[in-house]
Structure formats: structure tokens, C-alpha cells
Amino acid sequence: MDSLNDLYKDFKLTFEIAIIEHLGINLYSEVHSSVSELLANSYDAEAKHVTITLPLDVMLGLDNQKIIIEDDGHGMTYEECRDHFLKIGRNRRKLSSKSKNKTRTVIGKKGIGKLAGFGIADQVHIITYADYKKTEFLLNLKEIRNAKPSSQNTSNEKDQANSRDDDKDDDENVLREYDPTLISVEEKSDIQQGTIVILEKIRQFDEVNLDDFKIRLSRKFAIFGKDFYVKIVNSLSKEEHEISKFDLPTQFRFPESGWAIEKIKTKTLGQKEIRYWIGFTKATIKSDALRGIGVIANGKSVQEPFDFKSSGGTEGQFGLQYMAGEVIADWLDEGAVDVIASDRASVRWTDLNATVLLEWGKAKIRESLKEWAKLRAKATTQDIANERPDIKKEIESYRGPAREELEKVVDRVASTLSQVSTERVYDIIQSIVTAYRHDHIRLVLNKILEGDGDLRLFAEALKEWDLIDAVLTFEELSVKYSAIRTLKILVQGGATETKSKSGDLSLHEHLADHPWLIDPMYSDLQSEKNLDNFILERYGKTKREKDDKRFDFILLYNSDRIRLVEIKSAKDPADFRGLNNLMAYHVRIKESELERNILATVKSLLIYNGKVTEDAKGLMDAIKSNQEYEIYTWLELLERNEKIYKEMLGRVRKKNPNDPRVKKLIEAMEARNKDIDTVNKRTK
Q: 38 φ, ψ to 5°?
């Protein structure tokens, strides 16, 4: 008897393996990101109810676990499965921005969300109902990877594919054809409509925490509760939990409720509306899923929570740890030019119109931080009595004028230290209250009340300590600034990536010795200059099986972070081989971490001159779309470092320009820089 695939020979998936790998497996490499894309499909299918069933709080990838997404949307006929679902990269908005029955504006756009399941599972099982008829089929990742070249290839592509069929990495851009396994075709059913997506053969992942999972999904959408209800079912305990629209208990919120509405003038789209709210919690926000401002367009997140690239100074950096919020800018998703990454996790902020929103966001955060600092200072003094009764009791032990003076001191200190954590403020106030019994301490503290409200006299009492701190800070910054000058000379002089035969300093060596040049957060990471040695020592594995050539990366790591850095010289473009090997080692390290259950966060970085060879452009686009990769140009790296450290040096230098210790350090820095310039002239 003929199988269904024999009867329905036109049921095929035509694809390039690179698309499956980079826009399916690598793009959606976390459970919440994969599930959110499938939720978007349910929304576009006009579903009103969706149920997500998965095991919670246990390691994934064990005991034939499954993740099931079931909706009551309009489902698909066989023809719709064949002509629409199996078409990768089909831009549905070119046909219509509305859903099938015109009830919703669709939030899917690029036609790759259907691949999201392969980010966490090796098999996707589809059961879909339309007009009381069921169609069911399987998509298997292993079979897809082993699929034969398509007859749609040109003669040259066919020869290329056949000659390289044993090496899938080399012919990943050749069209291939895969026959999904058909189980039923429009079989009569009691169910009118809906779709069930079952993710089977789940790969190993860390356990899914319910609260974190709910938060991450709620931040992905602004559509929950608007005729779209989603619940999570724990497949182990059968407990049910509904997902609601994102909200967060805040101490201060702008506006106090609802959304504020403003208009901004874009570069090419005219006046556009923005809706937003920004809130600040009482304690620091520990979860990166909660902290920051998310950007939403057409009901779905287009930018994961971030700070609009704000710096904000000392007070600002502190305040960002308490900040959360949302911005709705539907027009970001409506222009002719696509400014949103494939996984809808980030906006291309270099776009002319997006840049206007970015600058608006920076200004709005600065404004909100200033207002928050004032309100928080007042609230701190009001909260002391309630939060720390021990301090209240000690204050009450004083009598008469002494108590009145102490209460004024406490109020002034709390107001002045509004940028310090609440816990630290209480500790300082506790010390002041305790020390106030000593006459010599009272004399110093009472200077606070003699000033003009800005603690000028109190600052004078602490001036020497401040000066010592400034000297130490200046010394550290001046050494770092010299390292930046050296990097600039290496880049401009066309230094090699790795050590040259002449023995000249290489870009590789300099960045490995000064990882903070790549990112200030990397100062605490160790550097391993031989990647294969690292892999052997950490995982007990040898080099890659198919390639004995050694590739030179900078490997930075500690117990919970691994950063793989690939650099190109300032004169050479990024090429296919370099990018391909970066991705290969990235995947290898990430898989090895999972095998050992270490679960350090793995990120890869590329530093290059901004140019890409023609054959590497597709791979570069895939890397840019993946949140596990960061890309810098040499110019960006230099400009950022020069700006940061030059400004910091200037601020510290202005504090005490005439102090002999500062003068001596300035002379030493200038001598170092002169030596660097001299060496540069000799090597030209």
C-alpha cells in the first residue's frame, strides 16, 4: 500500500541548510525565545486561547520530554500547510498586514518563526485542524540535514552539491528538498479548528523556572488579555498558570498609571506617536528579564529590555539597576526598510528613524532618573523609622537640642546619598547615630547643618581622603589610556592579528593582555591564548575531528562566563572561513558546557574593519541576528575607549590639578605616551 508521501509527492520543504542552521537552531537557542515565536504564530492564526505544556524545574532533554503549544486558531488545510507553512522566508505582510479573517494585525513578518522549534528540539510534530479536518506531519532535523539537493538547482549548483555532498558545511547554500513525514491528510475530525505544535526529542537545557519563564514571555508581547489568553501547564504536576501582561510593582512610576503619549519627528516618516511608562522599584532588580526598557511594535517585542545605551554618570548607572518599563512604537515595524532583527530581540539603531527614538529614549531616561533621585531621597527619610526601628530607637535616646540636630543630620545625609543603595544609606545613618555621642564627631557632622545645603563644609572635612582616592584613580586611568593609544597605533599601522615573524606586537597579544579594551566588564576574565589547549583542559577533548588546522582566537573566561574573540586586521575584511570557524568553535564550546552541566554563558565576539567578503555576507547577517554574538569595528572600539577614559581622566584631573602627586602622574603619563609615539615612528 502506498504511503501518504507517495500519494502527495508535492508535500516538500525546499530550503538551504544554512537557513535551517542559522535562522532556526542558532537563532532561537533558548526555550522562551522558541516558544514565543510559536505563540506569535498562534496569535496570527486568530487564536483566543493557547496552552503551553512543558516540564518545569527539571533538566530538559531527559525521558522523552515534550513541549506542546496548542491553540484554537483557524488552523491549516493541507494546501495551506504545503503552500504556506512549508515556505521558508515567506513574507506574509507583502500579501496582507491583516490575519486570515481580518481580525488582527499580524505580528509575524519574516516567515522563519516556524523554524524556532529546531532551536531546542530535533523533531517538530504538527497537528492542525481546519473545517473539521485534520492534517498531521513530522519535521525531523536529522532528516532535514541529510536531505538531497533539489532539482531546482542550476546545473552548476547540482555538480557542486554532488561533488561536496559529504561535506555539508561547504554546500550549505545549495537548495535541498525534504519530504516531511505525512501522518494524515484532511482526515475527518470532531475538532473544528486549531493547531498543536509538539516539540519532540528535546535537546538538553537547564531547567525552566516558572516565574522567569512567565516574565520572559510577558515581556515579549503586549497582547495578553486582549482577547488572547495564554496559560502554562506543568506537565509533571498538571498545575496551571496564566500569563498576564507585563507589569512590575514600582515605588515610583512615570506616569503614575497607564501610558504617557508623546510624538517625535522622525527623519523620513514624519510625526510618529510613542507610548511609554518608566518605573523604579524600591530594591535593585536582579533579573535581566525585568530590568530595563523593552520596545514593542504591533504587539510584540522588537527590542529586549535595555537602557537605550544610556550612561547617565554615577547616579544614572546606579538608577538603571532599579528601572523597568516599556515603549510602544508601532511604526518601527511598518516602514519599507526592515529595522528589526530576525529574532525580534533587537532594533537596528543605526537606522535614521530608529536613531531618533534612541535619542528620545536617552533623554527620557535622564529626565526620569533626576525625578526618581529627588523622590527617592524624600522616601528614604520617611522609611527609616518603619524599616529600621533600631535606628529610630537610638535617635529617640537623645534629648532636647541634640536630638533635633541629629534628626536634621540624618535627613540631610539621606537626601544627599539618594544615589546610594537603601541598605548602604541605613548603614551610614546607623554609624552617624552611634558616633554622634562623641563630641569631636558631632563637631564634624554638625558642619552639615552650617553649609548651604550641598555639604560643602562636610566635604572639606573629608577632602584629604577624596584626594588620595583621586590620585589612585588617575594613576589607573592614565595607564589604561596609554594602552588605548597603543591599540590605535597597532590598528592604524596595519598590525597583524597574531604574532608576526618580526616579533612586533600583534593585535591578538595586546587585546589578550588588556581584555577591558574589548569590554570594561571583561577585566575580571582570564585569558587563554591557545583555544585548543583550553578545550582539552576544560572538556578533555582534542581538536576538531575534520580539521587539524589551528585557529587563533582570544579566549576569555571565568567560572560563569566564556568569551571567544575573533579579530581581523584593520586592512583585511571578514571572510567566510573565519566566520564559519568562529561559529563552529562557539557551538562546540556551548555544547561542551551543556555536556558537563557547567552552563557558563557563552558569547562570541568579532572585531574587524567593517568590510565583509561577498561569500561571507549571508553568514554575517546570521551572526548579527544572533544575540549570542557581538560585533565591533576597530573604529567603534577605539572611539568608545578614547571617549570613556579621556573623559574620566579629565574629570579626575580637574578635581585637584595643582596637587604635586597628580602633577607627577600627569608627567609620567605624558612620558609613556611620548615613548609609544617614538616606537611607532621607528616602525613605520
A: -70, -35
